[in-house]
Amino acid sequence: MTTPSSRPNFFVLLELDPNSAWSDAAFEKALLDKRKHWTGARTSHPDVIKKNEAAQYLGMETEIRAVMSDPAQRESERKAADSILKKTREEQKDRFDSKLQSVLIKGHITESELTNLLNTTDGKALFPSSDALRKYLVSKKAKIQADDNGEDKKPIPIDAAIFNQTQKLLDAVGKRDLYDFLGLGRNPTDQQVKDETARLDREAGLNREALSVQQTIKDLAGLAATWMLTSNRPRYDEALRQKKFEDVDMRIKELAQIQDKRVFKEQTLDIIKGAKRLKREEVVDHLRGLARNQGIVIEGLESGFTDMHEALQSQILCPNCDTYNDPKNQKCTKCALTLSIQCPQCQTKNRVDHVFCSNCACDLSVLPALERLIQEARKWIKDRQYETALSFLKRVEAQSADIPKSSVAVETKKLLLDTKSKHQEQTTAQKAIKDAIAERKFYAARSLLKVFESDHVPLDDKDIAAALKTERELIDAAIDAAEKLVAQALWFLREGNPDSPEKAAKEYQDALEKCTDCDAAKQGLAKIPPVPPRDLVGKAIKKGVELAWKPSPTLNVRYTLFRKERRPPDPDKDKPLGVIETSPHTDSSAPHGIPVYYAVYTDLEGVLSLTGAVLAQPLLLTAEVHNLHAVPGDKSVTLTWEPPPHVIKITITRSTLNQPGSTQRVHTASATDAAWTDIQVENDRTYQYTVTAVFKDHDLKDKSSQGAQVSVTPEPALQPVRDLRLTPTGNMVKLEWTKPPRGEVCILGSSAKPTLKPVISRDELKQYGAILSVKSDLDRTFDPIQPGKTYYTVITLSRTSAYVGNTIEYFAVEEVENLRCRVEHDRIRLFWDFPSGCEKARVIYTEIVFEGRKTVPQNDGWFEITPQQYDEEGGGFIRLSGHVDQYQIGVRAGYKDNDEIHFSPGETLTVEVRPSVEISYSFRWRSRWFRRAPRLLLKVKTRRGETKYILPQLFLECRQGEQTNLIQRIEIDDVGLVSKPIKPIVVHLNPQMRPCYLILRTSDLDKVRITHPLEHKALFR
Fold it and tell me: pLDDT, tens digit, for every residue of 88-122?
């Protein structure tokens, strides 16, 4: 079973309210609905992750039922769910308030914006109605204004102060407008804007820029998140347009003032060409307005505009620097941007200033922006700033996901792989340097640092340069200190004093402490072996062998331990047991039953002392026999055991309980013996046996273990039961046997077939299964151990022993539950609940026809259905035959055992399908010429063999869409054998009810079938 932290909360998963009163019916309905949903998602959901989640949830159904049926676990689950939902609601409120603040930045909220907020996922979850949201807005002191629905009215530009502040921020980071800042083209979706602004805000703090630049990017991301959304973007575009027209107005006014309110044709053409990112028609219309309102003569706007327009139209406007280029140019004359772009859908080449493809109308506005991002990424790659380059490339990858075959997407994919590889190499090299420094391997760190500086260090990165300088200084200082210590050690050795080796060893150790890969210190230390330890002693304890010795006077040393069986160890040939810090030490892995020698050597940085402390006498650990059992017999006791390794013999002593001085050795077994039977005993007397293992020590003397003991009481052998019989009785099993002359009987139940000796200890029975006691000879009925295969073994019990009889195998099954049906037009739909572990269900049915008072079976049929098929089809189906009156149906649950299916006896159901009376009906207009109220014509026919039938009430209804209204009730009595027409009934309809359908029904559907031809649906219009 999973832990609560590793699985979803079951209240949340089933969408149950944790604060409502618990209802088993509501839980079952929620679980059934979810199971259907998960089953459908597992087979047909397009997302692989959703498929796997659905399969996981279906596999947790048993765990869900177990947890939710236990009150204690359910209460814990409820509290956890309440905490999760509270946290989720707080997160929803925070997200909703963030969206609301972005809308309220203009000082009010419109009705359409209010509706949009209410229709968001968080809005639906937090506010059940529009009134609730309005109350919340009132509490926030937000003004609600009506929408301006003027169709011809231009958008109101954003506030001039906000726009000017935005432009100042854009100038600070070298961007023209918010479109250029986001790099999303001219038609971004709201989701693209949200994702990009969130990314820019998140990464602003990670950039190695000044704090002012970081804050500028964050401020611009916040402004873009507001003004680049679809609802506010027209206002920003209008402000941009007016800003661009300011340059046009200023130029016209300057020329008009100099030239007596006249602008010549060539000057007009230059002004139109200079109006960057404005439609030429808009510029011409604006100039016409200026000429009309201010009395300025602007030449070329009327007759010459066509020529001007064609001249400008043929030139290509660079979207990067707003420079007009000759159509023959391949690249921009100012910024070298490629002036052609290939459509990612139809591969048609287009001009770079085209927003849509000239062939297939694909949106091309985003491609130039993506090209600029790729160029920016290449610059960072050249500077070895791979992390920053990856951020640009990931933006391109996300924005080009919808055009996977475009050259931009293909180039980005290749560039991403190459950049990730280089970034990984850079990161690995940095980590290798840090790891070498952490391990004090400064010589290796110095080599790695040289390689990193030549191949991987980012260019113009002051932080990395400062970090490398610090690391270089640390490495050089450590190596310099180690080399000074090595030089000092060599001076001590050249001095030749008696204590010089010890002093030199100390200097070498200090050098290795400073720098662990100093080869000079290692080589020098290898020539000065440390002083060995002395006086090694050892003793056997319960946990193994405890060793102690007097330490070496050499400082900062460890000890290498050697162990060998039968002879002393040789450090030049034998593998050490381990390296030990201090004395004493316990060897818990020492072998039993064999002499073991130990030796301890001083270890100074991998250099061992010339001699070691050796154990004077080897140690021998004794071991006891394993699995000692005593089986009583008639004036006999059989002992069984498993001998330990290296034993030479087994001795057995016997004593009688409560009789002092009765202990005597009764048998000596060889090392290979594992059983012995004592026949010198009496029944009903308790004996104690001690079994001792004997070993040979290093002097070939016997050494015995303490001995394992067991008590037993001999008794006459009992007769095991051999005639166990089993009979299923409903959900129980009945076991029968012949009572033995002596001893009591019990039943051993197990899910696996037990492997038992003929006679075992009574205490051992519980290891093989559940003990089902027999209260009396009359009470021999038991519940199955569990659904599936169960083995029952009859056991005859004495005081201490169990005599095993025969075993019977039984496969327990559960029936389907809640079997029910519904008779539909041409079939019977069956419903039931599958029991746990059921592999499939088998539906068996018999068709019955009534002939007079007899029932005659016609045909039998059956089919099988799995739980998955049942969930997908919504039940099981039996097709109706027109001549059949009744169906007898049985549903049996099937369980799989290896390759065999076991079916339960089954639940049955009888279904009547032929009605006693059939009613056909039609409608006729009351007047042929005037479509007045229609008349209902009824025709009644009874089933053969019946002389009379009293019809229940009929109901005439009018149905319009999903609404059904009762028109009138109809009473019909005393219907005979012959088809009988009923007097026409005038139906009065409400004119407002048209168009409608007239439908006839009765509540007694089991005995009455209402039929009518398809063309008499009575559709009124």
Answer: 888 888 888 877 765 665 567 877 777 777 777 77
Query: 949: pLDDT confidence band, cut at 50, 70 and 90?
Result: very low
Distance of alpha carbon 156 from alpha carbon 716, whole angstroms: 110
Q: In the numeric block, which tokens belong to residue 209?
A: 């820029």
Q: In the β-sheet with 534-541, what is the strand arrangement from edge to edge?
A: 534-541, 544-550, 585-587
Is the pLDDT reported for residue 75 higher than 80?
A: yes
The b/e string for 207-236 (b: 16+ C-beta within 10 A; e otherwise) is: eeeeeeebebbebbbbbbbbbbbeebbebb
Map residue 922 onto helix, strand or coil. strand
Question: In this structure, is the dihedral angle defined by the CA atoms of residues 881, 885, 888 and 891, taken in order, positive or negative?
Answer: positive
- Residue 844 is predicted with a pLDDT of 92
Helices 211-227 and 190-204 sit at what angle, rounded to 10 degrees?
A: 170
User: CA nearest 412: which of 364, 376, 457, 456?
Assistant: 376
For residue 710, the number of C-alpha atoms closer than 13 Å in the C-beta half-sphere is 24
Residues 229-237 have a mean pLDDT of 82
Per-residue CA distances from 866 to 61, 787, 840, 975 (Å): 17, 18, 4, 47
Question: CA–CA separation, 713 vs 720, rounded Å?
Answer: 19
Asked if residue 30 lies in contact with residue 45, where contact means CB atoms within 8 angstroms, the answer is: no
More confident residue, 819 or 932: 819
d(CA 676, CA 882): 81
Residue 202's identity, in one-letter code, is R
Give the closest residue to 567 by CA, choosing from 599, 541, 538, 591: 599
How far apart (Å, rounded) are the C-alpha atoms in residues 614 and 599? 4
Given CA atoms 250, 255, 260, 263 in this order, what sign does their dihedral have?
negative
Contacts (Cβ under 8 Å, ≥6 apart) of 60: 2, 7
3-state secondary structure 731-786: CEEEEECCCCCCCEEEEEEECCCCCCCCEEEHHHHHHCCEEEECCCCCCCEECCCC
Query: What 3-state DSSP class applies to 973?
Result: coil
In single-letter form, the type of residue at position 106 comes to K
pTM > 0.70: no
Per-residue pLDDT of 181-210, as tens digits, reads 887 766 777 887 887 888 777 777 655 555
Grouping H, G, I as helix, E, B as strand and the rest as coil, residue 579 is strand
- Given this model, what pLDDT does residue 185 score? 66
How far apart, in whole angstroms, are the C-alpha atoms of residue 846 and residue 844?
Answer: 7
CA-only gyration radius of the chain, Å: 48
In angstroms, the Cα distances linking 280 to 98, 154, 180, 262, 733 are 39, 18, 21, 21, 95
pLDDT tens figures, 139-188? 777 777 766 554 445 678 887 778 888 888 888 877 878 887 887 766 77
Q: CA 80 to CA 951: how far, in whole Å?
A: 59
CA dihedral over 459, 463, 468, 469, signed as positive or negative: positive
Round to whole Å and give the CA distance between 861 and 880.
12
Give me the sign of the Cα torsion angle 677, 681, 684, 688: negative
Strand order in the sheet with 725-729: 725-729, 732-736, 781-782
Of 184, 151, 180, which is closest to residue 167 (Cα–Cα)?
180
Contact 319, 327 (CB under 8 A): no
Q: How confident is the model at residue 946 (pLDDT cuts 50, 70, 90)?
A: very low
pLDDT at residue 1016, as a whole number: 37
Q: 């969130």: which residue's tokens?
A: 198
What span, in angstroms and rounded, lies between the C-alpha atoms of 34 and 458? 54
* Residue 669 three-state SS: strand
Residue 502 to residue 508: CA distance in whole angstroms: 10
- The strand ranges marked E within 63-201 are 109-110, 144-145
pLDDT value, residue 47 = 67
Q: 571 near 599, Cβ under 8 Å? A: yes
User: What's the rounded Cα separation, in Å, for the pair 272 and 304?
Assistant: 13
